[in-house]
Amino acid sequence: MSDHDENPTTGYSPEAGEVIGVRRGMFGAAGSPDTSGYGGLVREIAFPGRSQRPYGGYFDAVVDSLTEALQREDIHVDDAVENVVVHHDELTLYIMRDRLPTVARLLRDDPDLRFELSLGVSGVHYPEDTGRELHAVYPLRSITHNRRIRLEVAAPDADPHIPSLFSIYPTTDWHERETYDFFGIVFDGHPALTRIAMPDDWHGHPQRKDYPLGGIPVEYKGATIPPPDERRAYT
């Protein structure tokens, strides 16, 4: 087992995955006609564990080519790639945040990889994933080889910094701004990291799980929006 097989802060084991919490009364649970999210629905919040070889399809070739490219940079793959997961027929590489620019550059430039296109970045907030609460997810596409993969990077809420990929993938420009605005992830090195939807002086980040769903004053009218379970039903 390498030093990266377990996160000492969270006990997260890439090999086995982890159940980080239980979600109650929220959207996404199956087996009930209730779509309000407040019908007592319960489901686990779980991460898939590390996948075993063969991954299938072109996934093995991608991982092998990235490993060789990292070695040419004198970087061991375990010092850059935290986990390799194949889930729902998609390959996700969990990257250590300090190595993200290097990995992204190699994925773009190496002839055997050539992931020329980044489709942006999305934020995810897992309040229960202690020490790894904020995740950034990058879908990449190789036009040359007709392949798709995802990169995922985690950062603690107490230090929400992830290197910007703007200099490698300029298409991430506005996506990084949006993720900063809605999740509070700070993309170090972005040329103009500003809020994209909320006012500059807005407090909080609206797509985080700890952000209230209602009851926020509407400043220009002084009105409030009640929480979803207290709103009037028109039935």
Automatic annotation (TrEMBL):
<dbReference type="GO" id="GO:0008137">
    <property type="term" value="F:NADH dehydrogenase (ubiquinone) activity"/>
</dbReference>
<keyword id="KW-0520">NAD</keyword>
<comment type="function">
    <text>NDH-1 shuttles electrons from NADH, via FMN and iron-sulfur (Fe-S) centers, to quinones in the respiratory chain. The immediate electron acceptor for the enzyme in this species is believed to be a menaquinone. Couples the redox reaction to proton translocation (for every two electrons transferred, four hydrogen ions are translocated across the cytoplasmic membrane), and thus conserves the redox energy in a proton gradient.</text>
</comment>
<dbReference type="GO" id="GO:0005886">
    <property type="term" value="C:plasma membrane"/>
</dbReference>
<comment type="subunit">
    <text>NDH-1 is composed of 14 different subunits. Subunits NuoB, C, D, E, F, and G constitute the peripheral sector of the complex.</text>
</comment>
<keyword id="KW-1003">Cell membrane</keyword>
<dbReference type="InterPro" id="IPR001268">
    <property type="entry name" value="NADH_UbQ_OxRdtase_30kDa_su"/>
</dbReference>
<feature type="domain" description="NADH:ubiquinone oxidoreductase 30kDa subunit">
    <location>
        <begin position="94"/>
        <end position="215"/>
    </location>
</feature>
<keyword id="KW-1278">Translocase</keyword>
<keyword id="KW-0874">Quinone</keyword>
<dbReference type="GO" id="GO:0048038">
    <property type="term" value="F:quinone binding"/>
</dbReference>
<keyword id="KW-0472">Membrane</keyword>
<dbReference type="InterPro" id="IPR037232">
    <property type="entry name" value="NADH_quin_OxRdtase_su_C/D-like"/>
</dbReference>
<dbReference type="GO" id="GO:0050136">
    <property type="term" value="F:NADH dehydrogenase (quinone) (non-electrogenic) activity"/>
</dbReference>
<protein>
    <recommendedName>
        <fullName>NADH-quinone oxidoreductase subunit C</fullName>
        <ecNumber>7.1.1.-</ecNumber>
    </recommendedName>
</protein>
<dbReference type="Pfam" id="PF00329">
    <property type="entry name" value="Complex1_30kDa"/>
</dbReference>
<comment type="similarity">
    <text>Belongs to the complex I 30 kDa subunit family.</text>
</comment>
<dbReference type="InterPro" id="IPR010218">
    <property type="entry name" value="NADH_DH_suC"/>
</dbReference>
<keyword id="KW-0813">Transport</keyword>
